[in-house]
Write the structure tokens for this entry.
Amino acid sequence: MDDKKIIEDKQISEFVIGEVSQGFFLIRSVESRTASNNNKYLDFTLADKTGEINAKLWHCTEKDEAKYIANKLVKVRGNVTQWQGRLQYIIEKVRLTTEDDNLKVENFVPSAPYPAEEMYSEVLKYVGLIKNSEINMLVNILLEENKDRLIYYPAAQKNHHSYRSGLLYHITSMLKVGEGLSKVYEFINLDLLYAGIILHDIAKLFEMDSSELGIVSDYTMEGNLLGHIVQGIKMIERVASEIEMNEETAILLQHMILSHHNEPEFGSPKRPMIPEAELLHHIDTIDARMFDMKKNLDNINEGDFSDRVWLLHNRKIYKPKV
Amino acid sequence: MDDKKIIEDKQISEFVIGEVSQGFFLIRSVESRTASNNNKYLDFTLADKTGEINAKLWHCTEKDEAKYIANKLVKVRGNVTQWQGRLQYIIEKVRLTTEDDNLKVENFVPSAPYPAEEMYSEVLKYVGLIKNSEINMLVNILLEENKDRLIYYPAAQKNHHSYRSGLLYHITSMLKVGEGLSKVYEFINLDLLYAGIILHDIAKLFEMDSSELGIVSDYTMEGNLLGHIVQGIKMIERVASEIEMNEETAILLQHMILSHHNEPEFGSPKRPMIPEAELLHHIDTIDARMFDMKKNLDNINEGDFSDRVWLLHNRKIYKPKV
Amino acid sequence: MDDKKIIEDKQISEFVIGEVSQGFFLIRSVESRTASNNNKYLDFTLADKTGEINAKLWHCTEKDEAKYIANKLVKVRGNVTQWQGRLQYIIEKVRLTTEDDNLKVENFVPSAPYPAEEMYSEVLKYVGLIKNSEINMLVNILLEENKDRLIYYPAAQKNHHSYRSGLLYHITSMLKVGEGLSKVYEFINLDLLYAGIILHDIAKLFEMDSSELGIVSDYTMEGNLLGHIVQGIKMIERVASEIEMNEETAILLQHMILSHHNEPEFGSPKRPMIPEAELLHHIDTIDARMFDMKKNLDNINEGDFSDRVWLLHNRKIYKPKV
Amino acid sequence: MDDKKIIEDKQISEFVIGEVSQGFFLIRSVESRTASNNNKYLDFTLADKTGEINAKLWHCTEKDEAKYIANKLVKVRGNVTQWQGRLQYIIEKVRLTTEDDNLKVENFVPSAPYPAEEMYSEVLKYVGLIKNSEINMLVNILLEENKDRLIYYPAAQKNHHSYRSGLLYHITSMLKVGEGLSKVYEFINLDLLYAGIILHDIAKLFEMDSSELGIVSDYTMEGNLLGHIVQGIKMIERVASEIEMNEETAILLQHMILSHHNEPEFGSPKRPMIPEAELLHHIDTIDARMFDMKKNLDNINEGDFSDRVWLLHNRKIYKPKV
Amino acid sequence: MDDKKIIEDKQISEFVIGEVSQGFFLIRSVESRTASNNNKYLDFTLADKTGEINAKLWHCTEKDEAKYIANKLVKVRGNVTQWQGRLQYIIEKVRLTTEDDNLKVENFVPSAPYPAEEMYSEVLKYVGLIKNSEINMLVNILLEENKDRLIYYPAAQKNHHSYRSGLLYHITSMLKVGEGLSKVYEFINLDLLYAGIILHDIAKLFEMDSSELGIVSDYTMEGNLLGHIVQGIKMIERVASEIEMNEETAILLQHMILSHHNEPEFGSPKRPMIPEAELLHHIDTIDARMFDMKKNLDNINEGDFSDRVWLLHNRKIYKPKV
Amino acid sequence: MDDKKIIEDKQISEFVIGEVSQGFFLIRSVESRTASNNNKYLDFTLADKTGEINAKLWHCTEKDEAKYIANKLVKVRGNVTQWQGRLQYIIEKVRLTTEDDNLKVENFVPSAPYPAEEMYSEVLKYVGLIKNSEINMLVNILLEENKDRLIYYPAAQKNHHSYRSGLLYHITSMLKVGEGLSKVYEFINLDLLYAGIILHDIAKLFEMDSSELGIVSDYTMEGNLLGHIVQGIKMIERVASEIEMNEETAILLQHMILSHHNEPEFGSPKRPMIPEAELLHHIDTIDARMFDMKKNLDNINEGDFSDRVWLLHNRKIYKPKV
């Protein structure tokens, strides 16, 4: 095989047995194993948007082991073979991708349906509608400080919106719903509602460890011991103190965070005591439920029921024929 | 005293001790009692928008007893006196009001903030947006059949929207919220959602006995034994059978009624299994909560807490100063 | 092998390796597979009262696939061989059974201990005791309309009485218990009680899809979305409307259906409000519990405990030596 | 007034103002008070089957105070007067009743509908059906030891069967129900079932302090700290040890007592593990519910609902017109 | 009456009708009323250790109304009279007490059994045992900052330790218990445990408004909206940030505060995840329960039961004779 | 191989392939199997403190099967071989151990950290502090009667302290905690508390079947049907009757046993009604929780979380770095 031969990038779905193929892939998982000849090798599951393939890097070094880890993007060239009826990809060359490769991670992992930057701008548009200058400032500071993570963080490890930029997508949907509700319930203070929506889960950025692919490996120590509700209150406390925010305003925002799960058994020791907090809870729930329902309906045909969905109280969901 | 003297109608707040006063009043409550001289008399609490007054009709007949009952509107003339430090109204003349008196009952009892006919038209506007001809027909039939009651029925005996035309007000608010949500969750079937909102509590018209003042005296026998959820399903079943509605469609509408309380312990043996039913539940809850919160906030000052509100899980509600 | 050779029918327990055997069997399950030579074949589990055997129909056609499906009875001739230490039945000839074969399905699947027709007659005997002519008529109509299914339906997919004619068996036991109780509690209205017992689960015939073997494959769409309680109420509503039944009577019957699970969390939004409904609930529970206990005790020795039984709140059951 | 005058006994409903009346009455309640002249007097509520009356014993001694206490039967002679529109009975003579008066306490307090001795005989009839000689002996011993109390004890302080001989009435009804059920569920061990029914509440005789009128004043120290379930187990333990009962049999009887409330939160740490214990629980519940329902229905008209009944999960009960 | 006459101070129990008496009293409650002559007067309930008395200040001024309010200590001289059989105190002279009066408030209101300063010193003794310098510093800062309030604050408005210096008493008892437990469970980190005990309820000082008498009038706005658990976490956050405490240490302390109610439904969204937090919860509960039990036992005799105690799950408590 | 050759005892960790080894081992599990030559053999898992090994006894007799059962200690000699990469021990000689072997079972199974006899003496020391002679006598009798089992019984089959002498270890820790608490809550009756601690789980000796290794095979019939709480009450009842104990004292001890799980759903139909019973519950809980937490922390590093622990409400436990 001639390394220098110019070959085009292919996607996994285009692989043909017996050919040399090359392309960009995500390392979904990887294990270091020892072959019968006592040599170490890496056993990968590689993925792109079109599918997954098992791949082997024979004769790997310790450096390889350290470098090629789960959730990294790699450029690979290798032979496509068959083993026990399934395709296998024998790696000839492999390297980590660089900025120059100009890849969009959204093409390799499940992601929100809108570009993160676009959603971030939409959030800023709503921040612009917050008239109370202190609230406006506090929200802006927290967004700026955390923009890096916000761009790619999911909203959960396993639950609703648990994919790349899921948190941002959750926030933008909720802001739109809040806008709609405020037209029916005109006595609502929109400054509080918008700030509450934007900040209600902001501390998830520090409750969970997420890779830039939007995949959560684990909860942080602080996430386990305190949880995003208390962490979020601490974040507001810190910035409120920096900008010398009116105490009542800071407490109201903290109360919205504290009460947004609505019930003690779901993590909110206080139930909502102002209508904006009450709405925040319902908007949050609606957006989660619609996400979960849509996701399950997308995978079934009209007239069919989904499997039981744990996140929806173990319900089956039905896709009407009407 | 000269009965023929022309005197102007007065409201209770304008009454002066020692004068003859006349006006239109609502009989809030009435009791037949026996005086020390063994004569029967009627002891009323009369009310108008401005207040309440105790009134006596001495020497009443059995006919009077049967005629002047709670929740009726009456025209009264009498002397305003004082007894044990409180005003007392000694009735000289009294009659039931007639259509010619041209009274608006809304002026005597708590009522929805919009005229019932206006809200009814608004509901019809949304019905016009239901494209599925069967659903459209069924909703129209049920509205027409029940318009008379719908105009004045409250949504509850004691809970949220428990005043004249409260059910209609509840429906119109919910329709607007539904419209807003459908713009964010575009996969929602609006025909089902609008029909579900309009019909979800329709059987309350037969679960409770309400006077035309919007005051519920009691639950009906069927209301007690079956409840408005099952009664509503029966209503849909009957009309669906009349118009030979597609069976799946009828079942979906019935499922929305059945599941709109969301949890078995609140009367829904099935949880929502389609997204429209899920949304219906949340819209219903939000509208109830916002009603209860607003009602409690309207009575307190900024910076104060309400008393504990039973309907809101015994919470106090706070009125922010922000 | 000579196909024409006359051989006697055998039961699975009588099979001998190396012989040609023939008999009638139930297809418990069947899968279409592809052999290494790329030919399709059917892989069966066949059963009769005496046991189960794996069977192969090599070289099957698409027609075969469509015809030989689970829960059908078949006549089979084939060679009994051994593979990996277990018997295997290589099918030579197979056909669906016909009425002429004169088979009793009870001999192939778990069934109630009494013949279905006999139990049906017993139910009619109790109907004969219902003096209220409207109730009598309504019960008769619903029985006649549904006799076909009632004959073989189980009372559940997995729970108590989940075998052929289980529902009928459940009803007849309950009727006898009701008769006994009515002698102690003489104020009970037996018309309501007997009707309630007969109809309480009648809509299970439409909540679940059962084969004529009494094996439930799944819940129906309406069963999932409404459930047999609401479906049963609709059935009564339809017939009550046809026979112009007294409204109160219809509501009482519907209330008995509605409340027979006794608690909201078990599907009854209303608890029993008449003594007949209260008794119906207890009789239903007792019959289910005695069924489950007896079933578990039948399989253990005196002095032993059963395994934990999920349907009995995860209890172990003890078989006394006394 | 001549004390020696012979006057006939009267019932309260026959009292006439201004006359001297005499009769037998129950002291429902009594209070020692001090009159304005600083003399002590006793203020009674006296009762018979026909009603209640306020009575005064002026100038009472300390001996009187000690003697005339609540729940005693007294013979009284006195003047019937009127005070503030109500009858008042000014006591001239009073004494405690004696055996010679030959009174039946059932005529003064709410009691079971059958004579206690008759019900006790009925229980013995069922004991006669217990074939296991050890069980038979143990039940007989416990009945004999406790016959005195059993004759008059109620089954509860406030709940179902809380009147004179209520416990005995509860037991006899349950025995009849058990007999009926055993005909449907033929595998039931009737020895265990009958013994379980007779003994399940036997320790209520020591959990509560009841007067011979069947009125419970309070719980005993042991009743509060251990409760009738544990007390009953101790009673069986003692007798089983005396008669050297087979250990398994004793444990089975104790298990039936222990589990007859069915759920931990109702006092049974173990759920029934034998079918006889399971039936015992249901028979107990049915008999309590039928008692409570009947009691409430007896006081209302057809077509009416009772008030909410706390003992029946706060339900209203309906009396059908059918 | 001669104002100059020198009279000794008396306690309420020593008052004699017809005498002029003077002394120091606590204003338990006071109401401004209007007499029949249209003059305003103040109607007091005054108290000292020995009892309570009704008192009147006729002809009060607006200044008096503002000055003599509930929970203040006053010096009073007046006539002791009788009205409707009860003592009444007609105030001649009244003034607020001053420091020069040298009164101990403990003598007028229920208080902890030890002097506050002594208990505060005991707490400091335990702080001295905290070896981790950061924890030691943080605890010291928070104690010093809040010593003023800590001295008199109760631990609750109505629950256990709801009297003057009750919080301090609760803390010192818990510290002693913690010390004992640490000798059995030697792996416990005493620095964390002592700090957790001292700080667990520290924010009650800001959750409730207490007078210096240890009487709580109400919850604060922040107390209502956030609660002492979240407020306490904020207090630790602020000081930890000031002293640049190790982040893990601060989180551990905050976790102890957060989890000390052990269950979400009691206000702890996280259960204890370190053994010190687990112990803190149990020590807190034990001290509360022992307080409530002792309090109820102190008021009854051996062999008696207390009334049902709401704070103890509605139990009665028994005082053994052993 | 020469059987007479003297070889030293070895532990499993010292085994070398190809050598003859001998030693003492615990039979963890054993199965009788049939080899391909139709001979029966025994397949063991043998264990000592240093590890486990698979072992085969070829050609076993029925006597061997009966003799070499799980949880026995054996002396074994055999060849150490390798099969499929794992060590295998081919048994040449095997015998049950005898007293002469002078083995300590603690060296073969998980056990309490202190010698059983030492802990038993410690318990007696506390008994010595019980001043009430009846309580002292009752506790002594029960200890003496049950010393044999108490020495080795675990406190549970799977939960906390489920190893050899675990119950004794649990009791001694609790006694120490009780001693500490009694110094803070001086009104506590130590006689009751110490007796309650010693007896609270005493009937576990008869609720579960434990081998002398402290391994529970199953619950007893009585354990299943009554449970150790009721069994313990019966034990106290028997001895109290023998020594004619004061009735109140016996009831108090029984109440402590009855209530020590604190909540009906955990097996205590009565909650603690005396402070000693309340303390007993908390001490029991604390000792269980500290055991479980310590056990989980012992297996992880500082800064790490344990897995979720079922016994601790499914919590993760954190090991601080502080």
Summary: Chain F has a mean pLDDT of 93. The radius of gyration of chain F is 24 Å. The CA atoms of residues 46 and 63 of chain F lie 19 Å apart.
